[in-house]
Structures are given as C-alpha cells and as structure tokens.
C-alpha cells in the first residue's frame, strides 16, 4: 500500500483547540502555528538528534530569534536538574510570555520540553515535533508533561496543551526498529481499550511491512491519535469519565506495572515495551477477576509478540514491583486502581484487587512469580 501524500489534520477541541498534523515534511507549518507575536523560540531537542533538529532551526531563524538547547538523550532528560538548566537558559535569553518553545525528539523530550513550557512564567506556547512513533501517537498529544523523581516515574508535571503537534512521518526514517516497535505498544493499547480495528490491521499485516513510509503505519498513527484525542477532549485533566468509562485514565491501560518496571530497571526497559508487558498483566488480572475471557488474554499475547514486543518479564520480583506500583497516580490512599477491559473497547476501573490476584497475574507472565 502507498501512503497518501496529503497531510491529515486532526483537530483537538476544548478550551484551547489545536491541530495534530500527520504527513511528510511539515516544518514549514511552524511559523503559521507559532504566529507573528512570537519573537524568540527555544528549540529543545534531544542532543543526539541534531541532524533532525538543524533543518527545523534553519526554518525558524528566518522568522525568530532562536535559542537551540540540546538535551540529554531519552529518559535522562526527564529530571529536575535538566528542567532547571532550561529555565536558566530561558531567563538569560530574556524569554517573555509572548515567546515560545518547540520540542524535537521522542516522548522523553516532549515531556521535558512540555514541562519547561508549562512552568516557565507559568506557561508559554509550545509546539511539539515528535520524532518517535511513540511520541507521535501518544506523548506529544494531549498536554500531559512531566519529569521523574527518585520516588517514581512522571511524579512531577503539569497539564499544558500544545499549540500544535507536527507528526512528520519522514522523521521516522532514521528511528531504530526497536524504537518503532516500542511505539507499537501504545498503538496496540489503543486497539484494546477503544479501537479494535487497530488490532485487526496489525494482525493482518506482515510486521516487517510496518515501516516509516507504509500506508499501514500511517493508518495506525492516525487511528491511535484519534483514540487519544477523543479521550482528552472530554477529560483533559483526568478527573474522570462518565457512564462507567474511566475517562482519561483509560490511556493508562497497562501502565501501573509498566511504570514500576521502568523505575525498578532504572529505565533500561523502554516505555513501550513495559506497556506491552503491563497490558498482558492487566489482561490476566481481569481474567482472574472473572471479567475477561481467556481468548482475549491470549489475543494480548499474540498481537504484542507478533510485532516483536515482550509479554514476559523476569528482572524483578513481585514484591519489588508491588512496592513500586504503590506510587502510581491512579492509586487512592493504600488502594491500587487498574484500568482493565471486560471486552474489546469496554474499559473500566478495577479498584483494590486482592493481593493474591496481583501476585497470580504476575506469576502468569514471570518465572519470578
Ligand atoms: N505525556 C504523555 O502523554 C506520554 C505518553 C506516552 C509516553 N510518554 C513518555 O514518553 C517517553 C518515551 O518516549 P519514546 O519512546 O519516544 O522514548 P525517547 O524519547 O527516550 O526516545 C527513544 C530513543 O529514540 C531516539 N530517537 C528519537 N527519535 C529518533 C529518530 N527519528 N531517529 C533516530 N533516533 C531517534 C532517542 O534519541 C532515544 O534514544 C517516556 O518517558 C514516557 O513516559 C509520555
Ligand atoms: O495521556 C495520558 O493520559 C496517558 O496516560 C498516556 C500514557 O501512555 C503515558 O505514558 C502517560 O505519560 C502516563 O501518564 P501518568 O499520568 O501515568 O504518568
Ligand atoms: Zn504510555
């Protein structure tokens, strides 16, 4: 299949509407999004990705005073000292409320850069240019920003919606295969909680054919972005859904265990890989609670492993992971809460599952039990 050449514009409604654009070669759209009241633009980019950031900076210097700030790679960017360095640089350059931030990188960069934009002068405009599949379908969209602390993942942050998101699929050409596969973890998550057509597409496509320039990848990106957009327009700040739907928390499917795995592995396990393991875990938990048929648990394993994602884990004991899960933001007091599904696209919250079930679900995917 050949991907369409025109851009797809997905509108995110709400109090501060913006567009997520999916296409190829999109940096020319930046001035139109930033507007002509902006004088200075800070480009916060993953320092290893200078070759991707340079053309964007070149396009911006024709219109603005540009401050380019290279960040540590990956999760090492999501720390308080890195945010503080950015605040210092913005202060020295005299950034005001009419100036703006552009982020270029994966989800770690958009999370850190989004947080800097949210906190500088209590909020300046930010446009995200995601360079990983995961950041295109998830991290750059929806306004969640944040950093990690010693106590856990994403524990400090803010909701700060971008002024625009440019998903330039051509930027994925240099993305290592294992990073593209990690992004599919969040895509498949969207398939289970909201859009089963994603699962059908992944199951009928040769995984090797899911490449940066394929029509299949583009359809997966657009479908996953629409899932996220539909959720965040109704529950931007994660205060809850209606009619039994978990609201924005649905996007946290698989994330309670995932974040515990990331933290206890010192972030050596990729986020998307941890999400894959976490999705199998909550499927097992839902089956133990009697709500998810065994066939759907196996479908989790099959579709995730088909694209090369892990569905087992043995690098930590249940006790270590259980302790780490307690700092999850969905927890209330000492009660853990999980997003589970009762069927495809039928999510709900499972509050306070029995510790025996938590342990048994882990034993089903780990020899460490
Ligand atoms: N805010 C949200 O809503 C949200 C949603 C999902 C995930 N996240 C966060 O996103 C982070 C994970 O994001 P990620 O998977 O993009 O990881 P990442 O940002 O760590 O990037 C992964 C690696 O890919 C490299 N890379 C990025 N783009 C590249 C390209 N085009 N070519 C070559 N190499 C490239 C990076 O340098 C890095 O080494 C986690 O911190 C997670 O918590 C946030
Ligand atoms: O946007 C959301 O809401 C999500 O939960 C998307 C997740 O994929 C993402 O990993 C997010 O950063 C997790 O948020 P957290 O609140 O659990 O830290
Ligand atoms: Zn995630």
TrEMBL record:
Signal peptide: none annotated. Zn(2+) binds at residues 186, 255, 271. It is an enzyme of class 4 (lyase). NAD(+) binds at residues 73-78, 107-111, 131-132, 144, 153. Its EC number is 4.2.3.4. Residues 183-331 form the 3-dehydroquinate synthase C-terminal domain. InterPro entries: Dehydroquinate_synthase, DHQ_synth_AroB, DHQ_synth_fam, DHQS/DOIS_N, DHQS_C. Binds 1 divalent metal cation per subunit. Can use either Co(2+) or Zn(2+). GO terms for molecular function: 3-dehydroquinate synthase activity. This is 3-dehydroquinate synthase. It comes from Nocardioides zeicaulis. The lineage of its organism: Bacteria, Bacillati, Actinomycetota, Actinomycetes, Propionibacteriales. The gene is aroB.
């Amino acid at each position: 299949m050949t991907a369409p050449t025109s851009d797809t514009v997905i509108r995110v409604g709400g109090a501060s509407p913006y567009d997520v654009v999916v296409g190829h070669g999109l940096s020319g759209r930046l001035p139109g999004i930033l507007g002509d009241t902006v004088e200075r633009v800070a480009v916060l980019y993953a320092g290893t990705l200078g070759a991707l950031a340079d053309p964007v900076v070149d396009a911006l210097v024709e219109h603005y005073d540009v401050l380019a700030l290279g960040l540590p790679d990956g999760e090492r960017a999501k720390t308080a000292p890195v945010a503080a360095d950015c605040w210092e640089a913005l202060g020295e350059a005299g950034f005001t409320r009419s100036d703006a931030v552009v982020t270029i990188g994966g989800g770690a960069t958009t999370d850190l850069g989004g947080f800097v934009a949210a906190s500088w002068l209590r909020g300046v405009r930010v446009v995200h240019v995601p360079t990983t599949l995961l950041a295109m379908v998830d991290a750059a969209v929806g306004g969640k920003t944040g950093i990690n602390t010693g106590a856990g993942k994403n524990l400090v942050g803010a909701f700060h919606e971008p002024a625009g998101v440019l998903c330039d699929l051509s930027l994925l050409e240099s993305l290592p295969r294992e990073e593209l596969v990690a992004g599919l973890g969040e895509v498949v998550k969207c398939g289970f909680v909201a859009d089963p057509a994603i699962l059908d597409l992944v199951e009928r496509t040769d995984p090797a054919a899911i490449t940066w320039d394929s029509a299949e990848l583009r359809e997966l990106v657009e479908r996953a972005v629409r899932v996220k957009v539909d959720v965040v327009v109704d529950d931007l700040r994660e205060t809850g859904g209606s009619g039994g739907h978990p609201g924005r928390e649905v996007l946290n499917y698989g994330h309670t265990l995932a974040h515990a795995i990331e933290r206890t592995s010192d972030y050596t396990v990729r986020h998307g890989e941890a999400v894959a393991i976490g999705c199998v875990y909550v499927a097992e938990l839902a089956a133990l609670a009697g709500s998810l048929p065994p066939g759907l648990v196996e479908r989790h394993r099959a579709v995730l492993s088909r694209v090369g994602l892990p569905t087992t884990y043995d690098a930590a004991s249940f006790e270590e992971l259980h302790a780490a899960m307690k700092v999850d933001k969905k927890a209330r007091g000492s009660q853990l809460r999980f997003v589970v599904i009762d069927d495809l696209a039928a999510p709900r919250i499972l509050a306070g599952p029995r510790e025996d079930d938590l342990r048994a679900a882990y034993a089903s995917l780990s020899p460490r039990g």
